[in-house]
Amino acid sequence: MSPQRRTAALRRSAGAPPAPRELKAYLRLLAGTQFAFNTGFYAVLPYLAAHLGDGLGMAGWLVGLVLGLRTFSQQGLFVVGGALTDRYGPRPVVLAGCVLRIAGFCWLAQATATAAVVGAVLLIGFAAALFSPAVESETARAAVTHERATGEPRARVLAVFSAAGQAGAFLGPLLGTLLLFLGGGFRAACLAGAAVFVLVLAGHARLMPRRPRTVRERPRGGLFRDVLANRPFLVLCLAYSTYLVSYNQLYLALPAEVERATGSQNALGGLFALSSLLVVAAQLPLTRWSAHRVAPRAALTAGLAVVAAGFAAVPLTPGGPAGLLPGAVLVVLLTLGQMLLVPAARGLVPDLVPGHRLGVATGALSSLSGLAVLLGSAATGTLLGAPRGVLWAVLAAVPLAGAGLALCLPGAGRAPVRERTGV
Length: 423
Known about the structure:
Elements: H1 3-13, H2 20-42, H3 48-55, H4 60-76, H5 78-88, H6 90-110, H7 114-150, H8 154-181, H9 185-207, H10 225-228, H11 231-247, H12 253-262, H13 268-291, H14 296-313, H15 325-352, H16 358-383, H17 388-406
Helix pairs in contact: 2-7, 2-8, 2-9, 3-4, 4-7, 4-16, 5-6, 5-7, 5-16, 6-7, 6-9, 7-8, 7-15, 7-16, 8-9, 8-13, 8-15, 11-15, 11-16, 11-17, 13-15, 14-15, 14-17
C-alpha cells in the first residue's frame, strides 16, 4: 500500500474527516462512475420501446407496463440498495449491481417471449437499484463534507455529478444509434451495454475503497421509522416523484410524438443528444448561478414549473423544420427544469434525515418515485391514443402539482454561501 493510501486508511479508521485532496479524488471517482453507468444504460434504453412494440409486437399498454416495471424495479427498490449501502458501504453494493446489470443486458439481448423480456427488464432495474443509491448517497455525503470544509454549496458538487451522468447519457444513445445504423440491431446494443459494465466492474473492483469512507453510526430502531415518519421528507418524495413521472415520458410520450411528426423514430437519438448536451454545457453554469442566489426549495419549485411548461408547449408549438420543433421544445424545457430541480432535491435530503439514514433516505426518494412511475407509465400508455391536447395537458398537470407540493416544504432552505473553491 502506498504511503498516501496508508495515510487515508488511518484517517478513515480513526474517524477523521478526509483530506481535501482525498475528498476531491473520491468525488471524481463517483462522478466517473455515474458517467460510465449512464453510457452503458443509455446505449439500450432509448430503443427499448421500439424493440418491444415493433420488434416483438407488444401492444401499447404492455409496452408502457414493461417500461414502468423496469423503472419500478429500479427506482422502487432503491431503498434496498440504500439500506445495504448504510450497512456495508458502497463498494460491495456497486460491484453486485454491475454483475446483475451485465447478466440482465445479456438476457435481454436473447429474450423474445414476454415473460423472458419482463424477467430481463426486472433484473436490469434491480441492478441499478443496488448501484445507483450507493453512488448517489456517497456523493451527497461527500458533497456535505466538502461544503463544510470549503464553504462551496453542495449543489455545485451534485451538479458535477449530474453533468457527468448526462455526458454518459449523451454518449450512450450515440453508441446505440451507431450499432443500429451498422445493422447490429437491438441485440448488439444490449451486448455493447453489457461490455461497458464489464469495464465498470473491473475498474471499480480496483479503485473503490474496500471499506466505507467514514465511520457511520449503526442504525437504531426500525429501518424506515426515521424516514417514513418524517413528513417534510415525504413531501419532498412526492414532489420529486412528479418529476420522475415526467422524465419517464422521454421514453414513452416523446417517441410517440416523434413518430407522429416524422413517421419514424430515427430522430429520437438526436433529441436525446440535445438533452445531454444541454446538461453537459449548462448544468455547471446554471447551478453556479442558482446555488448562490436561489434557495433549494425555490429551485425545486421553479424546476418543476419549467417541466410543466415544456409539456404544455407541445400542442401549442408549430411543427417547424421536419416537424420536430414541438419535441425539441419539450426536451429543452424538461432538461432546463431537471438542471434546476435535481441538485436542489438531492441537496435537501441530508438536511431532512439523520446522517445514519442517508442511504435509506436516498433509496426511499427514488422508491416512492418509482411507484408513481409504475402507475403513471401504464396510464400514459393508455392516454397515447387520446386527443393530443388532452395527453399533453394531463402530462403538464403532473409536474405542476409537484411544484405546489414543493412550496409546502418547511422554510426556504439554506442561505446561499459564498463560493470559495471548486471541484
